[in-house]
Design a protein that fits this description.
Strand content: 15-25%
Structural class: alpha/beta
Number of strands: 9
Oligomer: single chain
Length: about 230
């Protein structure tokens, strides 16, 4: 893969054979960010798991201590009092059958969808559309719930979803370059602790093979797992 000149120069600052402490890594993240905007910082876990096994198909959500730096647009599918609760909580769009039809027609001006359980049968018809986009509500991530107030508040305050891919990797945003070392470290530790807690009992040998962080269009920087435990 051919890389641009800025990327090549930035990559020279990173030793691929070294696992950096969080302080060193997030300092490098800032130095290797070559874009003109405030880049998103992501963390990636390469795990020793087989997603084909139900107990190893990790999926869930976590509220980061300092959020992601991005305001999520939330749509809530609910009726009656729950629709009113969602509006009061600050949801960007609230509706039931009419809103489902609007989405079926190709409207996707939102980032996260929350739905009450009673709406899932009707919403399920859009599974083929919402599923591939990662927008289908799911109880495991807290987006199928009667407590729409809590769901909206958490999403607006930095809740992120994570899901293992077909080769055993989990990747998630943990903030912006402008957050600085301290906030990025605290967010990274929060998701690391969650990943550790979710370790399937059926995993044999090393669970976390590799942990890397990077900024948008920046090189990967390997993290020393020990620095995430401190």
């Amino acid at each position: 893969m051919k890389r641009g000149k800025k990327y090549v120069e930035a990559a020279k600052l990173v030793d691929k054979n070294v696992k950096y402490s969080t302080a060193e890594a997030f300092d490098l993240v800032a130095k290797t960010s070559t874009v003109k905007f405030d880049a998103t910082v992501e963390i990636a876990f390469r795990l020793n798991i087989d997603p084909r096994k139900a107990e190893q198909n990790l999926r869930g959500a976590i509220v980061l201590p300092h959020g992601t730096g991005k305001t999520q647009r939330v749509v809530v599918i609910a009726r009656g009092e729950k629709a009113k609760d969602a509006q009061a909580a600050g949801a960007d769009h609230v509706g039931d059958s009419d809103l489902i039809q609007k989405i079926a027609g190709g409207w996707f001006d939102f980032d996260v969808m929350v739905a009450t359980p009673d709406m899932m049968a009707e919403l399920g018809k859009l599974g083929r559309v919402l599923g591939p986009k990662g927008l289908m509500p799911n109880p495991k991530t807290g987006t199928v719930t009667m407590d729409v107030t809590k769901a909206v508040h958490e999403i607006k305050n930095g809740k992120i979803e994570y899901r293992v891919d077909k080769v055993g990797n989990i990747q998630a945003p943990i903030g912006k370059v402008s957050f600085g070392v301290e906030k990025l470290t605290e967010n990274a530790k929060a998701i690391y602790q969650t990943m550790n807690r979710l370790k399937p009992t059926t995993v044999k040998g090393v669970y976390m093979k590799n942990i890397t962080v990077s900024s948008t269009m920046g090189p990967g920087i390997r993290l020393d797992e020990e620095s995430l435990k401190a």
